[in-house]
Write a structure and sequence with these properties.
Blueprint lengths: L2 H16 L4 E6 L4 E4 L1 H7 L3 H4 L12 H15 L9 E6 L5 E12 L3 E9 L1 H28 L1 H26 L4 H32 L7 E4 H12 L9 E6 L5 E4 L1 H18 L7 E9 L2 E7 L7 H4 L17 H11 L3 E6 L5 E8 L8
Parallel strand pairs: 7-9
Antiparallel strand pairs: 1-2, 1-5, 3-4, 4-5, 6-8, 9-10, 10-12, 11-12
């Protein structure tokens, strides 16, 4: 090949590299930059002339910058490829010192010496979009929780009014009793005061549970007792249910254990499923609600069964789609939000027919590794 042919070939390859929609950077085995594409110039803010011959770690923030040469020596000595040939998320550093999220893919070839080709995709905009979507999802979940509270507001008012009225009556009786002479009167008054405190604590517990449920907050996942989450959910979801004639059966298997979830998120799912089941039985004679948990094949299951009319055929295909609802005043986002939450746990939410009538909604999520039964 003549010098002219070689130059033409180099120009052709350079054109291909510069046409790449992602940054292309080539280095030798000493980490020295040999080629720095136009997209690399745009992403990192350096001119090619500023970085040619420099160690590629100039494009890395700490701690990767200090570790890069060691990684390279280990690979050259052992041949063990840990990042070559696979895409991985990294942080990159611009000339200005700003860091940005990127996806890096490294390939290798030999041309008299080892040459490494790095393809760097700036994913700043994608990450920003993901964050906006996450924020929107959190806002939808919060709206869903507020909607759930709105739907049972009357029952909540009754649930709070009952213990507070009882506490006021007990406190009044205690005051009257204290006016009587003798030690027995004081003992009777103390017993009445204890009962009043218990009623106030009962009301306080309902308020505290609602406040935690309604709080707009960042999600945090930890190993959580699934049975405990279901029990806490029932405190809210079942308010007023027995007054409406619903017969409740609870079967929480004590071997269910933990799942790595956000407590409030999973509560939201369970509350939504229970309230849907109660609503489905409004017009039925038999109102049996069954809530159960179990652990099977490394998965934790929560099942909510009702004896309502079941799922209409025209709803089956779009059951978990946004704004699909059979309720006259429903928004149709509860099941959609619930499914998105369970999907984020690598789980599944599905419905099937209950016999002889009604529906069973089941949540399946991975059990926490090495969990202890609580």
């Amino acid at each position: 090949m003549t010098e002219k042919d070689a130059a033409e070939t180099e120009d052709f390859l350079r054109s291909i590299i510069n046409a790449s929609p992602v940054a292309v950077i080539t280095t030798n085995e000493r980490g020295e930059i040999l080629i720095f594409s136009r997209e690399a110039e745009a992403a990192f803010g350096y001119r090619e002339s500023e970085v040619l011959g420099k160690n590629v770690h100039v494009l890395m923030p700490e701690p990767d910058k200090s570790r890069h040469d060691g990684y390279m020596r280990r690979y050259l000595d052992t041949g063990e490829a840990r990042i070559i040939g696979r895409a991985r998320p990294v942080s990159a550093r611009r000339k200005s010192g700003e860091t940005f999220p990127a996806v890096l893919h490294i390939s290798e070839f030999t041309d008299g010496e080892r040459i490494f080709v790095g393809f760097v995709e700036d994913v700043t905009h994608q990450k920003a979009t993901e964050r906006r979507l996450e924020d929107t999802q959190l806002q939808l979940q919060h709206a869903g929780r507020i909607g759930a509270m709105g739907e049972i507001a009357t029952s909540i008012a009754h649930e709070l009014n009952q213990p507070l009225t009882a506490a006021a009556s007990l406190a009044g009786a205690a005051a009257l009793t204290m006016k009587k002479p003798g030690d027995q009167a004081r003992e009777d008054a103390l017993a009445l005061i204890d009962d009043a405190v218990s009623e106030i604590q009962r009301a306080s517990g309902v308020i505290r549970q609602m406040r935690n449920f309604l709080r707009n907050r960042e999600t945090t996942r930890h190993p959580q007792s699934v049975n405990r989450i279901v029990e806490e959910s029932c405190l809210i979801a079942l308010i007023g249910a027995e007054t409406d004639g619903v017969m409740i059966k609870s079967d929480l298997d004590n071997t269910t254990g933990d799942a790595n979830v956000d407590r409030i998120q999973l509560q939201q799912v369970v509350i939504n499923l229970i309230r849907n089941a109660i609503d489905a039985m409004q017009e039925t004679t038999v109102k049996d609600l069954s809530i159960s948990t179990r652990r099977q094949d490394g998965m934790v299951e929560i099942s909510i069964a009702d004896t309502g009319p079941g799922i209409h055929e025209d709803m089956k295909a779009r059951l978990f789609q946004p704004f699909a609802t059979t309720k006259e005043d429903g928004m149709g986002i509860g099941l959609s939000i619930s499914k998105s939450i369970i999907d984020s746990y690598d789980g599944e939410l599905f419905a099937r027919k209950n016999h002889p009538s009604g529906a069973i909604f089941t949540v399946r999520i991975p059990a926490a590794d090495g969990d202890a039964v609580r």
